[in-house]
């Protein structure tokens, strides 16, 4: 069995960044194993391409050009190169260059097109069980991504977040005459609501917990950077939620005495209430491991990056939030990788 110095599990934006930065740090390509079932830019590239981003193009370009190992300058022109850097874009525009980078990184390191299922530590080596052959590695980086959260309203027919955020997929669902509940007040909510209002649904009821938050760009930092609405979602929310409700849209606070009655009006539901970590099977000896949000360490030689293992940071006004985004994943690696290189099993 071949042993590796580093194994990266996951090939979404965080996994791509991890492979690139390990190569940038001088780790030999043949000492890096990369595990993913598809190598199609993770959920980012397979589920969310139709979603309008809340990130300016210039920040995506910062990510794409940050790692010399990406060799982005050698690529042909992509659509993202022709968009105003101060504007936002659909995530599919970003997935295109990410797929190119992933392909070229995969030609250098050892790739395993399979799913990692379990981790165990033996003789100061991590054994990564997969659907095929096991992989043994001194260090492992988990970039396993997250899945949408749900709520326990089993009497309603669920419309997946993936469908609600993609007008083409939504158009294929039989929603004529339906009353659709949408839980949440996130960026995804403010994309799903107008999409549903373009559908033949009879009524859309948005159930929410608190007032909307908007990101505010200040001198060198952004208030509510990871929790506030931005871009197209913010514009729609200001006009249609904090402004005048469109026809067929109603809203209900979940603490309202009428909540149960209003929910009974609904026959379909969309949950835009955030994401939770995609889980590997239980790690023998430890159960489910939690990462240190300050440095990404889960155990000696085991590290987490990306939306599943976000950094927690306090902003200049003393508010804490989890940092999620491609450029933030790259910045995170720049901060913690020197420590990871020394914190082996």
Task: Sum up the structure in keywords.
345 residues; alpha/beta; FAD/NAD(P)-binding domain; 2 domains; eight-stranded mixed beta sheet; globular
Q: Would you write up a description of this structure?
A:
With 345 residues, this protein is α/β, with parallel strands linked by helices. It has helices at residues 13-24, 42-46, 57-66, 91-106, 161-164, 167-170, 187-197, 231-240, 259-264, 326-340; strands spanning 3-9, 32-36, 110-113, 116-122, 125-130, 135-142, 146-148, 157-158, 179-183, 203-208, 216-217, 222-223, 249-253, 268-271, 275-277, 297-299, 302-304, 311-314, 320-323. The strands form five sheets. Strands 1, 2, 3, 4, 5, 6, 16 and 17 form an eight-stranded mixed β-sheet that branches. A five-stranded parallel β-sheet has the order 8-14-9-10-13. A two-stranded antiparallel sheet has the order 7-15. The two termini are 19 Å apart. The mean pLDDT is 95.
């Amino acid at each position: 069995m071949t042993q590796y110095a580093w194994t990266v599990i996951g090939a979404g934006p965080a996994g791509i960044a991890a492979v690139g930065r390990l190569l940038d740090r001088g780790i030999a390509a043949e000492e890096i194993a990369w595990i993913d079932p598809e190598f199609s830019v993770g959920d980012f590239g397979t589920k969310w391409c139709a979603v309008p981003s809340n990130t300016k193009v210039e920040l995506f370009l910062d990510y794409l050009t940050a790692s010399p190992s990406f060799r982005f300058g050698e690529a042909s022109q992509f659509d993202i190169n022709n968009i105003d850097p101060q504007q936002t874009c659909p995530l599919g525009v970003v997935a295109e260059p990410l797929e190119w980078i992933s392909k070229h990184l995969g030609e250098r390191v050892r790739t395993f097109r399979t799913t990692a299922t379990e981790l165990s530590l033996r003789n100061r080596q991590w054994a990564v069980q997969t659907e095929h052959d096991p992989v043994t590695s001194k260090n492992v980086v988990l970039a396993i991504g997250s899945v949408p959260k749900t709520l326990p309203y089993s009497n309603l027919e669920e419309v997946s977040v993936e469908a609600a955020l993609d007008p083409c997929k939504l158009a294929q669902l039989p929603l004529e005459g339906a009353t659709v509940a949408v839980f949440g007040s996130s960026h995804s909510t403010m994309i799903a609501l107008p999409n549903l209002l373009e559908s033949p649904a009879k009524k859309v009821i948005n159930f929410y917990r608190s007032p909307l938050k908007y990101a505010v760009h200040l001198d060198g930092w952004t208030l509510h950077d990871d929790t506030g609405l931005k871009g197209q979602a913010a514009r729609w929310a200001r006009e249609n939620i904090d402004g005048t409700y469109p026809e067929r849209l109603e809203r209900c606070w979940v603490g309202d005495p009428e909540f149960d009655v209003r929910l009974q009006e609904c026959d379909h539901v969309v949950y835009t209430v955030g994401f939770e970590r995609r889980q590997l099977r239980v790690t023998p000896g430890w159960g489910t491991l939690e990462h240190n949000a300050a440095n990404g360490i889960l155990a000696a030689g085991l590290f987490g990056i990306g939306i599943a293992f976000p950094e927690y940071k306090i902003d200049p006004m003393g508010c804490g939030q989890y940092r999620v985004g491609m450029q933030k994943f790259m910045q995170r690696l720049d901060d913690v990788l020197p420590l990871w290189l020394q914190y082996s099993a």
